[in-house]
Amino acid sequence: MTNASEQAGQKKSRRKKEFVFIFIILAAVAVLTLVETSITSLGSEISLSSTVVMFILININLLLLLTLFLLVFRNLAKLYYEKKKNVFGSKLKTRLVTSFVILALVPTTVLFFFSIQFISNSIAFWFNAPVEQTLESSLDVGQQLYAYIEEKDVFFAKRAAFQIDSRKLLKNENHNELRRYVQVVQRAFNRHAVEIYTPDAKRVSLSLANELEHLYFGILTTAELKKIPPDRASTTIYQTFDQGEFLRTISTIPFNVSLDKAEGFIVVTTLISKTLSEDLTAILSGMEEYHQLKLTKRPAQMAYYIALSIVALLVIFCAIWFGFQLAKSITVPIMKFAEGTRRITAGDLNYKIDFQTDDELGTLIKSFNSMTTQLAAGREQIALSREMLRQQNAELEKSRQYMEIVLKNISAGVVSIDSTGVITTINKAAESMLAIKGAHITGRNFRQVLTGEYLLMAEKLYEQSTASRQQYIQIPVSAAISGTPKHFSLHYSILKDDTGKNIGAVLVFDDVTELEKAQRMAAWREVARRIAHEVKNPLTPIKLSAQRLKRRYSKEINDDVFDSCADTIVTHVDLIRNLVNQFSTFAKFPDVNFTRARIENIILETIDLYREGLENITIDTRFDDNLPYLKLDHQHMKQAFINLIDNAVSAMNKQGTIVIDVSFDPILKMVRIEIADDGKGITDMEKTKMFEPYFSTKKSGMGLGLAIVNSIISDHNGVIRVQDNQPTGAKFIIELPLA
Questions:
Q1: Which of 3, 48, 52, 186 is the most buried (most CB within 10 A)?
Q2: To 5 degrees, how large is the angle CA 262–CA 264–CA 267?
Q3: Phi and psi angles of residue 182, each rounded to the nearest 5 degrees, phi first
């Protein structure tokens, strides 16, 4: 309902505007007609129909001019509001319209004033004095000729009338003599005709020149005979025919008497040649037309001015209108181009410019539409390709995530490099094993990451794989990671694409430290067991034999050398037994007896053993408050701590500080025990063999202390490692699980 009422209101408003427009036009026509009437006084010589036709034509022109003016004014007002609102294209349209107005106004103004001047001069030239004087002189010559002929005829009529009246030739009995006299007069005076009429217009005598004998020579009527004005003695009648013009001069008989006293009339006729008659008629007609034109000089001049003004205004308005149309033909496609670029920028590639023209803009529009069509097709193709690429990427991402999950969850470390040696990937296991951050080495060449002997080892492995063209190389590698000895089983594989081109390599390595340690420990235990078994049995007979020899033959021989040798045998047998016992202990450690115990109590109990004997060594302890109970074998753990403290004391040369730090990680549920000294420290090479049996950096001992410690910690499902202490010394780290 609201839309319908709005449309009805719009129609009513439009109809009202139309009525107002029509009223304005009618009022303008009335006013213009009044103005035209007032300024173009055509005079009474121009006919009413011609005047009406001229006014109609002028009004039609004015109506056309008014209509064009309204259209132009409407477009100018529209252009003004568009420019005021800064509508796109209004500036260009304004410049084009202004240019056309200037281009049309200047020549039109010049031409208008030149035409006005030309018409004024031309009209002035047409009606100048010499032309009028020439026409008047020619007319005067013709009139004087007629007056001369008439005067001669009057003279001859006067003399003939006198003779006829004096000789009484009008009487009936003298008519013959009258005819002879008339012939004599006609021939003597060399007139073309002489006639004698009675008062009642009866021609009683006629004498014609020879050239008129074959022509009809009419009789004058009474009215024509009595046209003689009272104040004149004669009158002349002009009669035109094919061969010329007759000047028939009529006088009374007797001459110059009133008509009522006239006894007759004498008519003397002179023939004017056809050429002379027509010339005189043309001169007369030209004179009359000249006077007629002279009367229309001012109206014609005003009509020309109005016509030129209308034409000038038409030219100007047409130029403005053409400027509008040209500006519209240029700005409309430009606006559509702008709209098109905006829509395309916004992503609407289906936009088409619906503007038809057969010029270069039409070609440009076709190219634009073709471009948008191709862009739309290209976008569809790109969208399709993008969808396919997205699917492929999704599949690749899925595969990558799967591979990452696999790499992340496998226990082996994986590192890949490209053909130039740049590290491309590294999994979490490798980061954990090597104690490095993948982000720090990814994208870098392994030559920039590795240093020292590790770089030499990597270069050797790289060159070996390149030189031997082996696809697969497996080598054991030992290294100290953050001061902790590690043993790895490294698998080096060359990667090649489908064409056989080398695209890099992948390193897969496993941390076999514990496995190798366990294998070594088992081997050493077997060795120790065999040594203990094979060596321990003969020791007792040897010792008993030595003691028996000493008891039986010592007094008989009574030689100190003998006693000393027997004692030496017994002493070294005891030393060998002690050694064998240690091997035996290592080979077959007593069964573990787990009980709930507090690790800090075991440590403090162990430290108490060293309070009195180590005057220059300080043992500091730090225990977390949240240390839980652990399932421990009290004696074994105490033995382990004794071995570690002995090792630290030996490294410090019985002088320095030992720090024992015990903490608990509730997240990992792990108790961490750090025993650090400020001794001479341990080299990386020593770290790799530190927990192996029969390895010692000391001059004394069997090198089983740390191996026993490692065995005890392993029995408690814990781990032990060694690393450098800062600033000096070594640090043994034990991690025991809570359960």
A1: 186
A2: 120
A3: -60, -40
CA dihedral sign of residues 663, 664, 667, 668: positive
Q: Does domain 591-737 have CATH number 3.30.565.10?
A: yes
Pairing mode of beta strands 656-665, 617-623: parallel
Q: What are the residue ranges spanned by the domains of the chain?
A: 16-129+293-343, 156-286, 410-588, 591-737
213 phi, psi to nearest 5 deg: -70, -30
Q: In the CATH scheme, what is the code of domain 156-286?
A: 3.30.450.20
Is 517:491 a contact under the CB 8 Å cutoff?
Answer: no
Q: Which secondary-structure segment (H or E) carries 59?
A: helix 48-84
- Beta-carbon neighbour count of residue 394 at 10 Å? 10
Give Cβ neighbours of residue 723 (< 8 Å, ≥ 6 apart). 482, 483, 484, 687, 730, 731, 733
Query: Hey, CA dihedral for 108, 114, 117, 119, is it positive or negative?
Result: negative
How far apart are the C-alpha atoms of 411 and 425, rounded to whole Å? 16
Q: How far apart are CA 279 and CA 290, in angstroms?
A: 16
Which residues partner with 267 through β-bridges? 195, 250
Long-range contacts of 376-381 (CB under 8 A, 24+ apart): 376/349, 376/350, 379/349
* pLDDT tens digits along 643-678: 898 888 888 877 889 999 999 998 888 999 999 998
